[in-house]
Amino acid sequence: MRVDIEDITLSRGRITLRGSGTFGEGIHLVSGPVGSGKSTFGLLLAEIIHPTGGSVQRHGISSTLLMLQFPEYHITCPTIAEEVISWGLDPDDLLVEADLAGRADDDPFHLSRGELKRLILACTVARNPDLLMLDEPFSSLDCAAKQRACRVIEGRREGITIIFSHERAILPQVDAIWEMEGGTLKALGSVPRAIPRWRHAPPYLTYALELGARPENIRLQDAREAVCRIRG
Amino acid sequence: MQDPRLRLFAATVLSIAAFASTLGAVAALIWWLVFTPRIKALPRSGVFFSLVAMITVTALISEWGGGPGISYLIRMVVILLLAAWAYSETQEGEVLSVAVWALGDRIGFEIGLIAEVGLTGLAVIRQDIEQARIALALKGNRVGVLTIVPIAVLLIITQIRRADDMARLLVVRGYTLGGRICPIFETGSRDIPAALSAVIPGVFCCFPLRDVFILLQ
Asked: For chain A, which domains are there?
């Protein structure tokens, strides 16, 4: 199961996207500042838009899902339960999973942005597609909800998961890091070797690296553990 | 047309002419062919033809009921073409500038600000529809009759929320009534001939069609 990107180019507004590389099985983080073209790249990989040059080739992938940055756009039903059913899922289990038990008959638009994000994230992960893309899954979430979202994402050990995010505080354990800047996608490689090359690394990782520590992964606890190891 | 004042004048006169009579609409169409970028000023073909289809259905019903359906079709399509042209050429802030130039810092600013917010809202609605279409496609649905209601609900709720946010933002920034800007306009070389030519369809619309043919004889 993999997605090959071969010299793709796409001009969209002020941005020209460029990139090459292979997304294999596991969790990939595509990081980069706001406006660097991450969302557009997600649309490209989801084959909602098509590149003007190069190609995106999928191998062994039978289902794809993209969670949009703004969860309101996903809503198509008048109640939360019906919304879950529209994803082909059982609302009883999923609402417990999304910490929204007892709200099955509420209007989805009455949920806060964070609650709605939690609901849509739970739905997309529960669908368990071969290729899952999450556009800014941590935006609008508080710290506890971000950590919860990280656990949900980490729980997906099959298929390809690609996270497009500018988040630099609370991140899940990932297998590979990619960087997006000015529309160009760069593959930094697999974790932990990619961490020192990561220009948009969170401050705690940069700090750990400056101390000479070598974190195993990109979470805060990985940086802490690495620092503890060198300090004995 | 660079000068938004002349563009507004031309669009208003031509729209009135096109609405008033079939002859005025034909004259306005000729003006549109001569002075605008024509097809380049139209929205996406799907959007444009959907609007034309809606007008056509109304026109056919009118014609079937003995009304002036064909005339209605011609007049409305020409108004649609003029609206598409005026919208495509409008730059951010121009409506506010024209309103302040015409009506001053108080009423003009208020009207201009409302119009400017409305125009920005149109662009946002277009993006919202595109995102909703993507979300539907991800669920395996296509935009159709059954999806009109959820998309409409989404648009109404998001627009109300944005309007509320904007109102709060204006209050936080101390906005009460009116404002002061110094509008600057640039007039292109073809702007004045185009604006003056727009008066011709305006004159045409005042004559009944048969009177013109009598005059030609």
From this structure: 2-63+129-194 (3.40.50.300)
